[in-house]
Amino acid sequence: MDSCDVLIVGGGPAGSSCAWALRHSGLNVAILDKETFPRDKICGGWITPPVLTDLEIDIAEYAQGRVLQPIKGFLVGCIGGSPIETRYSEPVSYGIRRREFDDYLLRRSGARLLLGTALTKLQHTSEGWIANDVIRARFLVGAGGHFCPVARVLGTKTNTESPVVAQEVEFEMDARQREGCRVIEDTPELYFCADMKGYGWCFRKGDFLNVGLGRADRGHLPAQVTGFLSFLKSSGRISFDVPPLHGHAYLLHGTSPRAIVGDGYVLIGDAAGLATLQSGEGILPAVQSGLLTAKSIVAQSFDSYAAFIAPHRQSWLMSIGRSLPAPLISFLARSLLNTRWFVREVVLKEWFLPVVTL
User: Fold this and answer.
1) pLDDT tier at 349 (50, 70, 90 boundaries)?
2) What is the reported pLDDT for 320?
3) What's the pTM?
4) Helices 98-107 & 13-21, crossing angle to 10 degrees?
């Protein structure tokens, strides 16, 4: 029977970051994933500078042969309205393609890779875990995203949760589509729903375009997506129909009912429900949860990770917004999103560009 000290189920940023941080620990680390890499991954695909800092990624080295689109501005507004442009003197984020980024992190992780194999069976023993009847591990890390098989096998029932749901697509534009796209490469566009329960985005990375919309309520998603795509065309941002969108889901930080740390196991990244409350950004929390988990495994104490996953206090704006009637929320949203200071200092600085490093 194959064996390892730490079995990480999921080869995305959370799992590969955890393995990378364990590379000098002396522990035998393996990553199990049902996919072979590189693989496509539904995601808006941008990272903030703390991701690069925490993972010690050299920007020039990573950009060799990969998409790394500097972001120096945003267009922000409401769907159906006119957006406000905010510019910066230097890059504040970077656009990436998840198939490239995830493969890069996985290959440099230093872990033994068990790819193309799904986790179908898990047994807890006095000595640790046995996966698929063929892999024995002393410790188990669930890093398989919202539908993580570790969480599922341990009893998580996703049908009782209230995740954010999204539909999006990333595709390479042909010559006609490039000509009909007015989205600027270094300026992602963010458009909020009138009820502030979600937002859509349109983000160009060279010849690739990423379009999507996420909401906190499942029932209104299809209509909102249809309306958003129509708005992008009617406002002249794109002149063509985008390919079919694909769905995914994630839990916001502090809303997960899952048992994240238990006897011989831990959940990290989207498996633990760590996406940021305001923007739903998941890559930085995934990376940081992986790094902290690695330190916790070595120290044999999860106190620091427990503090990291503890629910954050909501902003004053979100707290007030929950008690207001829908028509008033819509009126205030349109007013505030038409205010340059609010867009720059609250929406962008606090929601989308927080400077949080380990």
Assistant:
1) very high
2) 46
3) 0.93
4) 20
Cα end-to-end distance, the chain, whole Å: 37
Cβ atoms of residues 30 and 4 within 8 Å = yes
Expressed as residue numbers, the domain containing 212 is 164-248+315-352
Beta sheet of 208-215, edge-to-edge order:
84-87, 73-78, 189-192, 198-205, 208-215, 164-172, 246-250
Q: How many residues does the chain have?
A: 358
Predicted confidence (pLDDT) at residue 83 exceeds the cutoff of 80:
yes
Peptide bond into 38 cis (omega under 30): yes
128/206 same-domain check: no
Backbone angles phi, psi at 299, to 5 degrees: -80, -15
3-42 pLDDT, tens digit per residue, is: 999 999 999 999 999 999 999 999 999 999 999 999 999 8
Hey, what amino acid is at 32? Answer: L
What local confidence, expressed as pLDDT, does residue 322 receive? 57
Residue 93: Cβ within 10 Å count: 23
DSSP state at residue 136 = E
Residue 119 has pLDDT above 70, yes or no: yes
Selection from 129, 97, 102 nearest residue 16 by Cα: 102
Give yes or no: residues 206 and 242 share one domain.
Answer: yes
